[in-house]
């Protein structure tokens, strides 16, 4: 049986260079997950799992966002006036900002508690697999943001899948997911909590060329669909693109 979280971890690690989803799929971008942030995420992905690596980045970005707000502000980071997430009731206490926040520059990558909204409990492997699947789909959809995949790029994708060392079941899974036409709206609709929303946006930001017009439009549509406060979206982008 395929381990989707492991596949996500391998993709994140491979994405430090000429990546499947951050490079060849969209015509040879410079590559996702470069720089210090990318290196740290790649290491975390191999050690802790793909979902945990993304959760750590999203959690840190949210804490930075909270720390940057005025002392008396009570920001949630999410515009619930746009509608609520399915089954969402309140921010889990474990993921709330501490009563006394450290300065922004003191916040390092922090692995969120496993019982927080950022990561399922360790015994709930099904939930971790479900989250990892959403993140892989978000990665692929973001990589296809410019909408161009010609025959040459398709051939490169197949070759890159082989080069990454996946077994036949993993390759079949990835190629099936790559072939699915998913929009930003559909990716946003897969988020079932504000925490998942930050994770989906974080991995999407790390996958695209941040300077491309089509990619910026995709991220804007995605952020709106995920109901992110623009300030939180900016905090996620700053953390994801840190050198």
Rg is 17 Å
Strand tally: 0
State the separation between the terminal residues, measured CA to CA: 37 Å
* Largest sheet geometry: none
The SSE order reads HHHHHHHHHH
Fraction of residues in helices? 40-55%
Low-pLDDT regions: 16-36, 86-107
- Return the structural class: mainly alpha
The 3D shape can be described as globular
Report on this structure:
This protein has 243 residues and is an all-alpha fold. Helix content is 53%, strand content 0%. Helix 3 packs across helix 8. It is globular. The termini are far apart. The model is unreliable at 16-36 and 86-107 (pLDDT under 50).
Keyphrases for this structure?
mainly alpha; 243 residues; globular; 10 helices
Short description:
The protein has 243 residues and is an all-alpha fold.
Task: List strands and helices in order, with pairings.
Layout: H1 4-14, H2 35-48, H3 50-67, H4 125-143, H5 151-163, H6 168-178, H7 184-189, H8 194-207, H9 213-225, H10 230-240
């Amino acid at each position: 049986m395929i381990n989707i979280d492991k596949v996500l971890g391998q993709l994140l690690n491979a994405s430090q260079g000429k990546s499947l989803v951050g490079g060849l799929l969209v015509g040879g971008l410079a590559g996702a997950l470069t720089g210090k942030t990318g290196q740290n995420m790649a290491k975390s992905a191999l050690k802790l799992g793909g979902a945990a690596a993304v959760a750590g980045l999203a959690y840190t970005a949210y804490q930075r966002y909270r720390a940057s707000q005025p002392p008396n502000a009570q920001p949630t980071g999410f515009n619930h006036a746009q509608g609520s997430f399915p089954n969402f009731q309140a921010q889990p206490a474990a993921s709330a900002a501490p009563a006394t926040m450290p300065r922004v520059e003191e916040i390092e990558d922090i692995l969120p508690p496993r019982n927080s909204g950022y990561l399922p409990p360790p015994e709930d492997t099904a939930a971790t697999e479900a989250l990892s699947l959403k993140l892989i789909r978000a990665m692929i959809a973001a990589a296809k943001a410019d909408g161009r995949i010609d025959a040459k790029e398709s051939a490169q994708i197949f070759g890159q899948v082989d080069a990454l060392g996946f077994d036949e079941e993993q390759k079949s899974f990835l190629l099936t997911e790559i072939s699915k036409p998913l929009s930003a709206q559909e990716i946003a609709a897969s988020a079932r909590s504000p925490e998942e929303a930050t994770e989906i946006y974080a991995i999407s930001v790390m996958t695209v060329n941040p300077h491309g017009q089509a990619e910026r439009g995709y991220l804007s549509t995605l952020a709106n669909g995920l109901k992110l406060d623009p300030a939180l979206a900016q905090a996620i982008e700053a953390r994801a693109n840190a050198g």
